[in-house]
Amino acid sequence: xxxxxxxxxxxxxxxxxxxxxxxxxxxxxxxxxxxxxxxxxxxxxxxxxxxxxxxxxxxxxxxxxxxxxxxxxxxxxxxxxxxxxxxxxxxxxxxxxxxxxxxxxxxxxxxxxxxxxxxxxxxxxxxxxxxxxxxxxxxxxxxxxxxxxxxxxxxxxxxxxxxxxxxxxxxxxxxxxxxxxxxxxxxxxxxxxxxxxxxxxxxxxxxxxxxxxxxxxxxxxxxxxxxxxxxxxxxxxxxxxxxxxxxxxxxxxxxxxxxxxxxxxxxxxxxxxxxxxxxxxxxxxxxxxxxxxxxxxxxxxxxxxxxxxxxxxxxxxxxxxxxxxxxxxxxxxxxxxxxxxxxxxxxxxxxxxxxxxxxxxxxxxxxxxxxxxxxxxxxxxxxxxxxxxxxxxxxxxxxxxxxxxxxxxxxxxxxxxxxxxxxxxxxxxxxxxxxxxxxxxxxxxxxxxxxxxxxxxxxxxxxxxxxxxxxxxxxxxxxxxxxxxxxxxxxxxxxxxxxxxxxxxxxxxxxxxxxxxxxxxxxxxxxxxxxxxxxxxxxxxxxxxxxxxxxxxxxxxxxxxxxxxxxxxxxxxxxxxxxxxxxxxxxxxxxxxxxxxxxxxxxxxxxxxxxxxxxxxxxxxxxxxxxxxxxxxxxxxxxxxxxxxxxxxxxxxxxxxxxxxxxxxxxxxxxxxxxxxxxxxxxxxxxxxxxxxxxxxxxxxxxxxxxxxxxxxxxxxxxxxxxxxxxxxxxxxxxxxxxxxxxxxxxxxxxxxxxxxxxxxxxxxxxxxxxxxxxxxxxxxx
Length: 782
Description:
Layout: E1 2-6, E2 65-69, E3 72-76, E4 80-91, E5 94-104, E6 109-119, E7 125-128, E8 130-134, E9 139-151, E10 154-165, E11 170-179, E12 188-198, E13 203-213, E14 216-227, E15 235-236, E16 240-244, E17 247-251, E18 254-259, E19 262-271, E20 275-285, E21 289-301, E22 306-319, E23 324-333, H1 338-342, H2 345-350, E24 353-366, E25 369-382, E26 395-408, E27 411-423, E28 430-441, E29 443-444, E30 448-463, E31 472-487, E32 489-493, H3 496-499, E33 504-517, E34 531-532, E35 547-548, E36 556-569, E37 575-592, E38 598-605, E39 608-617, E40 620-629, E41 634-647, E42 650-665, E43 668-684, E44 687-698, E45 701-712, E46 718-730, E47 733-744, E48 748-751, H4 755-761
Parallel strand pairs: 1-2
Antiparallel strand pairs: 2-4, 3-4, 4-5, 5-6, 6-7, 6-8, 7-9, 8-9, 9-10, 10-11, 11-12, 12-13, 13-14, 15-18, 16-17, 16-47, 17-19, 18-19, 19-20, 20-21, 21-22, 22-23, 23-24, 24-25, 25-26, 26-27, 27-28, 28-30, 29-30, 30-31, 31-33, 32-33, 33-36, 34-35, 36-37, 37-38, 37-39, 39-40, 40-41, 41-42, ...
């Protein structure tokens, strides 16, 4: 071992299980001490609560060589050394600063005071009043110390009455307060009688720990362990607390880190008006497969007076070989009213037909081109809607589809086939086979294109006997011919009044689509999976078939006309605005209706559609959609919206929607005219109001009302949201929900996060934590 003594100032370093720095000043963490942080993104923002120890500036030493730099040096060679005045001790990437140091050269230990700062090899720093430290083994004790550490972008800062550094990887702190905030911010912290950390296992253990927020203890645990390196670890998560129409709801999740690629969560809980609950999730991931299992269970529901209520969701995806993959998606609930009772407005509408399917996908080369095939089995659990009605779709048991295409010069030969077995408990069953070969040419240049297509759609049914209906076979063969064409004209424009003189490119894009399909009666064919497109749009003008599915193919001798214009950034190509209008004209009547009959209310002209949308001025966005029904000579749908969004966190949107037959709530359709207003706006620099009112003028009813406040503290260390929601769930019935969440930076969320409710309800909504571009404050719960 070697020593080097120099009369010169120096710095020190100490490590804690994180990488960073530490300083001693426990009085700054007293309950009434002022917060020291500043507004983010300002020059006053502190980089460190405790700056790393300063170095001597001398050339780097060899391994196990100790250098001591000071203003004054005393001692006996090879026995003891006393250094005073701006002392710097350096050894093996560790640096110690102190007012004075006693160095025992035989044992290679130091005693430092009256103030010291130690930065260890991994970058951790501790600062305190007195230090006893073994330089050789990197172990020692510190009194009344403040510390700071960083690991993988996560910070840890705090104070401790007594710190024991057992070695480079293990330490123990008594009477500790710490948090993960920015330097100087102690708006919340965890206070514990003791804290032990082991860097080998990545586990920290705190005894008699309490979470103190704003000087008030809000949570207590006699013993808690947690990951100190950001990795997953088994243990209790923060309880989920929420309230609504069913009263107070509480869940206490326990997370199990079973393996690097397996984990599970079990969450017992209760709902005040209903009873005890149990939820669970299991996740797995392997190189060839991954999936999850989610389940919710209530043994007895006092409100519904039902036992054993549950929901189950299973997802699995599997890559068997490079060519073969598959998966399963299975959903089940105990009864028709489960989602109505336990889900929000959006989930109720989405979970009427619970999907259950399994599939295999196969991709290979056939004659040098890709052949894609799929085998699918699909069945539904159909729940009653809020009116008590149930309309179950056909089951697919099974379906085999295949598609192959080949490029031939300017043409593309495409062959699509499908055979499906349809089954239903109360309707006629049968098999449907389809073969649809077609060839499409593409002639284009820089300003336009012409794409003719010829195909033959052949369908054959083998129908079972059902009631008075006898088993039978029936076929339909229809040629399909169409020509799609369009041109794109461009001009440069400055749009001076809208965007401050920035140069743009404006396009003018006329389009013609001729489509020919002969008329054929199809009333003798079943309707297995076909529906008429209810929301008529500009894009649907250029579809071969107005129906979704293959049981009905419209007759067509028609020409679709469309005109579209777009405004693009001259250099980047970014689209700022788009508008268009179009209509389809029939040379002969389209007389194939969904019921398959011929001649009842034939179509001679399609409905007229027009749309516009995009940025219309600085900070202003607008969109509109108009659907005019030619048959009834009335407006079918009108949708108008405008949004003012000058910056993140400031947005006001207003939308008017009119419809002749709209779904007001799950299973209930009626004429609808409603106004939807949403807003997020700062009341003060860090306090935001959020709200939404979705009000129906006809019928007069508030479909949804949302109102809340969100606050983000100036240092970005925590945020809090409180949001209330009331929405219509059925005829003359409403549900309420209250969302409260306290988000602690790099630690956890407490409560029930309203983010999805606000994101879906307020166009342009920004997370409060992301306002002012503070996107690095990522919150986690596992």
